[in-house]
Amino acid sequence: MNKPLKIVVIGAGSSYTPELIEGLLVRKDEMQISDLWLVDIEDGWEKAQIIAALAKRMVDRADVDMTIHLTQDRQLALKDADFICSQFRAGGLEGRIRDEKIALKYGMIGQETNGLGGFANACRTIPIALDICRDIEELCPDAWLLNFTNPSGMVTEAILKHTNVKTVGLCNVPVTMQKGAAAILGCKEQDLMIQIAGLNHLVWATQILHQGQDKLSEVLEAVLAGNDSMVPQNIPPFAWPENLVRSLGMIPCAYLRYYYQSQDMLDEEVKELQHQDQGCRAEVVKSIEKKLFDIYRDPHLDVKPKELEQRGGQYYSEAACELMSAIHNDKRSVMHVNTRNNGAISGLPDDCAVEVSAMITSAGPIPFNVAPLPTDTLRLIQLMKEFETLTVKAAVEGDMNAAIRGLILNPIVPTGHVLEQALAETIEANRAYMPQFSHLH
Amino acid sequence: MNKPLKIVVIGAGSSYTPELIEGLLVRKDEMQISDLWLVDIEDGWEKAQIIAALAKRMVDRADVDMTIHLTQDRQLALKDADFICSQFRAGGLEGRIRDEKIALKYGMIGQETNGLGGFANACRTIPIALDICRDIEELCPDAWLLNFTNPSGMVTEAILKHTNVKTVGLCNVPVTMQKGAAAILGCKEQDLMIQIAGLNHLVWATQILHQGQDKLSEVLEAVLAGNDSMVPQNIPPFAWPENLVRSLGMIPCAYLRYYYQSQDMLDEEVKELQHQDQGCRAEVVKSIEKKLFDIYRDPHLDVKPKELEQRGGQYYSEAACELMSAIHNDKRSVMHVNTRNNGAISGLPDDCAVEVSAMITSAGPIPFNVAPLPTDTLRLIQLMKEFETLTVKAAVEGDMNAAIRGLILNPIVPTGHVLEQALAETIEANRAYMPQFSHLH
Amino acid sequence: MNKPLKIVVIGAGSSYTPELIEGLLVRKDEMQISDLWLVDIEDGWEKAQIIAALAKRMVDRADVDMTIHLTQDRQLALKDADFICSQFRAGGLEGRIRDEKIALKYGMIGQETNGLGGFANACRTIPIALDICRDIEELCPDAWLLNFTNPSGMVTEAILKHTNVKTVGLCNVPVTMQKGAAAILGCKEQDLMIQIAGLNHLVWATQILHQGQDKLSEVLEAVLAGNDSMVPQNIPPFAWPENLVRSLGMIPCAYLRYYYQSQDMLDEEVKELQHQDQGCRAEVVKSIEKKLFDIYRDPHLDVKPKELEQRGGQYYSEAACELMSAIHNDKRSVMHVNTRNNGAISGLPDDCAVEVSAMITSAGPIPFNVAPLPTDTLRLIQLMKEFETLTVKAAVEGDMNAAIRGLILNPIVPTGHVLEQALAETIEANRAYMPQFSHLH
Amino acid sequence: MNKPLKIVVIGAGSSYTPELIEGLLVRKDEMQISDLWLVDIEDGWEKAQIIAALAKRMVDRADVDMTIHLTQDRQLALKDADFICSQFRAGGLEGRIRDEKIALKYGMIGQETNGLGGFANACRTIPIALDICRDIEELCPDAWLLNFTNPSGMVTEAILKHTNVKTVGLCNVPVTMQKGAAAILGCKEQDLMIQIAGLNHLVWATQILHQGQDKLSEVLEAVLAGNDSMVPQNIPPFAWPENLVRSLGMIPCAYLRYYYQSQDMLDEEVKELQHQDQGCRAEVVKSIEKKLFDIYRDPHLDVKPKELEQRGGQYYSEAACELMSAIHNDKRSVMHVNTRNNGAISGLPDDCAVEVSAMITSAGPIPFNVAPLPTDTLRLIQLMKEFETLTVKAAVEGDMNAAIRGLILNPIVPTGHVLEQALAETIEANRAYMPQFSHLH
């Protein structure tokens, strides 16, 4: 395992990239990386240049023998790569802003991975993800693609179904739940064995083992008492419907709020949008990003700045680096990943993507069995998976029937004329990014 | 088969009863009925007396040897009965008005069998239905209970799970679909073989066979072109989302509007409620009922009056009479009934109630197999069945966790604080009818 | 429904054909048949001519306006046909004799539809059945193919999977069970509603309804007490393992002896074979057939002779005629047929053939749901279906891995060297009839 | 983790016990054991005394501070135990000899875990195992029970279903497969990730990962070429049916010979039995055991003797020690264990025992998901599991219907009179050990 590695980052102009660089530098003894290729497109070029410069300063400071390359030539970068991190955002933050605003205009929750926004994001992203995979199949067929491009579950499913690329989908939500549970219990993360199951942004912790005991109800009570350690930093404090969550016997991820507290979420978004200085969530993110890049520009900065931690995707990059190392070194660590179901969650198709706990080997993740879920939780997962699968179909084939049949199932999407109009506006507003629907124009 | 029959009607003060009487009189050669017992409670006594008097005039006119009994003593009536028709409304129309108004107050669809209203109705009705069944188990264990008390699917499931009573749940929706399809095709109803599958008020016609051909798409196109023959008379004209329904390859029942056009339905209900003269749907029904009883009172009336046909539940009673005759005479006719699933719809528990097509024998319904449904439709059915099963559990055991977990799944129920408040108000407003929740007060 | 029908019989030289003719003549008022085409190949020509001559005498005697055609030109016969009865025997009785003797030589049960013999028969028959279906697809695509060529279940599955022909598989076993149950109960057949489930030659009666009661245990006790009315006439008297069958709560068809009494069946076959005058079962059948054709030759014979009834396949042809009439007249009678599973038996693939009770309409059979079977019975059915499905694959694709993997599952087939040798000898001995395995020679 | 452990061995007079002692001594740094309690019954007392004396000598030599206790008082031994190793043989080798001879007398394979012998062994063993568990529930409810009493799968299932004891079933077969695969590949065992799935003595290796590659077909070809490293030492060399096994794409465990080569196995057993000097397998084992105990008696022996390795159960005890250490130290090593299915193998009940690969934590095994098996293999597993489940029911409840219905499914058991007689003789010959069937006498 001593061949030095070539790693490629697609969408390198992301504000998260410094965390990724830091993660790689921290693991310099586990993974010898000769070349790190940063790839971005013209639209993100300015940000990519800032990132590349910062990356070089970080590498220099760490005194590591790793060459940073910056390019718009994706194929050049992919040639013989060992790992590819995909973290691009199709249509940029402008796309996300549009998604949120269109949804809210029609009285729907506007969110980049859920509801109509998740649908729009998938339709913009999946065609590009599949294009990248065609290149991988040709230029580095043995490479592992670590996808943390959102909506991560649907993008992973599209890649698993339509390409031969070895891929794992990642998300910071389960990592945060794991770290949070350790914090609540006051124990080391590696002493916990936490099991996660569901779909991306629709997962539950089903057991939290520590020294032979399942500490789940202890952790759950802390969560209900207001401890928000298990919630990503970018999500403001909130309270769960207490009896509901207690009766589940599982700990829901923060995104379950969209399903367990749908009206509250909508009301909150509407209020935020009306708040003059702030705008919708994507606009808030845009302004945070702007500040981050101002910091990144500083020629004296040669470490990941503290400010990045508030950004929300915290631990994303740590998860990516840990996954690379686990595969590279056959570490057999337990991680929580998006991968092919294959029966891990009974009641879902074998070929769909699920987010489950797995042991990571040099041959990729080997998922643990998910013990039978409570029927009501399974029904929600099955419903949402069907929405996702129909959305993937719509995104790949431009099939409007699949689109509408999927959206109609989604419990946070109202149906009828309002949906038809919102969908039409979504497709029209994204003409440039949704070639699969060009037959509709 | 020549022993004369004893038939009992529970909730006899219903405005539908004259249709039931007519149906029995029309079938006098198929079923010899010596005694028809009309049962109601003190609250409905005035209406029951009007009905009983009309029933006697109808029997006299028909010159049939059938004695009409009117009583509040349910056990006296049930002793050695052959068939029981259950059509009571727990809490009366006042209860339904409350359900609709509470739901609408909280921005939810208010409807007697769907959403929060369906939940409330189930919680009021199921305890009484089970009480009646205890009497049946003791007094007439071989009798068939024909349930058309709403919510018919959940009531039937409660009876199937918690009693030994032989029961079949009935609804006029599939009958109307069958008659409507025949009208559209211009053929005799008995020449059609229509297959229906799903849950009560959540069914689809999956095939419409005529002379060796499946005419479903022909009928579907007529429906999409505006032919509303398949829709019960009390539902005003509406248009389906055309592409969606066409792509299903099945014909949804009218109640699917609550799922395929949820926002439109809510908007419509809000508008109706604001319309000064009219009030909510239940208030409209109340005023129709009042007019009907004014007509029934007429001592010269000795037939079912025409006006009853606009009432909405048209064909309910016809279905009941036909079912009684089919069982009594081992007719082997095809009807669409609520019965134990037992694998008829794959993907649902064996012990739940489903609404499917069946051949009716003297041993009750033998359901046809339901060919695999499109996955998205199955997912919706599975979700709604889970809502129903949790609601039945809540209704029987007073389990608030089951209640909230069920409601949270229901796609036409918003979640969060609004749901908690609406649920609390529902239970408070129904204190007198929901003893199972008395521990909450 | 008044267009006169064209009916084609493939394998018309069968000794059963006179029963079929009789069945058609008896139903002359239900089905007006203008042309009956008898088709056979050169090898069976002498027998076919005898049958054709007898058929003409029978038609003349019945004074029915139906033209009998005899031909070796299958395509001429099929052109614009309405119904096709397939009853050919690939390789003739000589093939069956070979099957039985090879199996017995290797210490295995030798039988035309079970074990190694069933496999051999399927491999000889399915390629021809598919050839016939290619002709049907071209020459009479709307025709119904009634298959009673053995092994009926596997042949039906091959046709369902590999052609677009509308087909129903038939067998006399369920008919005999139904008639036998009526005889035991002393009631009319049409007053019984008997439900049958499983695979061809592997079915159980699961309920026997009469006047609202399930009489199954009454019938079962009669069977265990020695009443053999439910067993085809060609099967000699035998006793079931009493406790086993009683505990099943279902009545097994006679062929279940091969699974419930495997050693006894083998011992019996070995004894029969050693009996000098008699030979194996197929040789007995051959000698019966010879006598029958001697009778058929008699130019004075113009009815179905009594002797035919001992032949074993009794009611086969009656079932075929009744099925034709039920389809032609949309009779909605209940019959027991081999058809696509589609979920009727939970736990089997949708696309496999099962033998179940169905209502027969002009669009073909609509199967009843099969209530969940006892798990042990389901396991046997699942195992045998997998054997069948692998055998169909072997027969269609010449896939030797499928062949061996299927045979290894079959509980009446010993495995190891003995199986490898027996299989090799089977394929070698059938070179002329198994072109799909020509790559092995 | 520093409380010294109390370990109990039930059936300590087993000839394997020295291997267990050695395993514990080797792991003295991982597990500090203060007390090792050896328990046996009067019938095995002489052997138990020999073992205890040898154990003391081994402990002395290793200079470890561990007290050896020998007792017939099981409850005294169990009080506050941490781990219990169950390795008793109900009825002793005499029982096994009887099983093998009765089966062979009736022309059946005679084997201690398969077919009729497995059934008999289960019926003798399960009542005792459950008795032990009642003691554990009372005296050391937190202890882990490591079961390697045969038939390990059925005994584990009985314990899982009928007690609250934390248990894991173990077998040396998967361990041997893992070690053999490493030997074939010439790599370290810990560098392999081998996945095993099925039931006890009915497992397949489904993948053999090494450095990111699945080496299964390489290993499979070595196996087919005659490399017997994956086969336990006590099983003589044999050749698999080559095409069959190659087409599986999985490596079967040696016991699959009973299903893939049933006639060969029977012939071999019959031949062995007829061989004058040798007797049946159990008699061979008895004579090996006699020699081993002669060696153990030697007061100078203070290590595990070499001769033990030919005994057959090699690695059993190593697996037990490794499992104890993995639980005690939360090692998260991958082992292959019998545990509750819970969906790990789709198509089997949640509550049955399966043999699968799992990560071992301080809370016990967390099974990996088993990717969907080929349908034919699944069918065999489902069938055999049903045999096992019915056998467990028969063993626990004395239910003869369950017994016969289970045995009839078993593909290596012939059915009919021969089975009824063999079963009756089995129960009669085991009167003293099968109290559950006392109602039959």
From TrEMBL, chains A, B, C, D:
Gene3D superfamilies: Lactate dehydrogenase/glycoside hydrolase, family 4, C-terminal, NAD(P)-binding Rossmann-like Domain
Listed Pfam families: Glyco_hydro_4, Glyco_hydro_4C
Keywords: Glycosidase, Hydrolase, Manganese, Metal-binding, NAD
CDD domains, per database record: GH4_P_beta_glucosidase (cd05296)
PROSITE patterns cross-referenced by the UniProt entry: GLYCOSYL_HYDROL_F4 (PS01324)
Cofactors, names only: NAD(+)
UniProt domain Glycosyl hydrolase family 4 C-terminal: residue ranges: 196-413
Signal peptide start and end residues: none
Keyword Calcium: no
Co-factor binding comment: Binds 1 NAD(+) per subunit.
PANTHER family: 6-PHOSPHO-BETA-GLUCOSIDASE (PTHR32092:SF5), 6-PHOSPHO-BETA-GLUCOSIDASE-RELATED (PTHR32092)
Family membership: Belongs to the glycosyl hydrolase 4 family.
Name of the protein described by the UniProt record: 6-phospho-beta-glucosidase
Organism of this sequence: Photobacterium angustum
Taxonomic lineage of the native organism: Bacteria, Pseudomonadati, Pseudomonadota, Gammaproteobacteria, Vibrionales
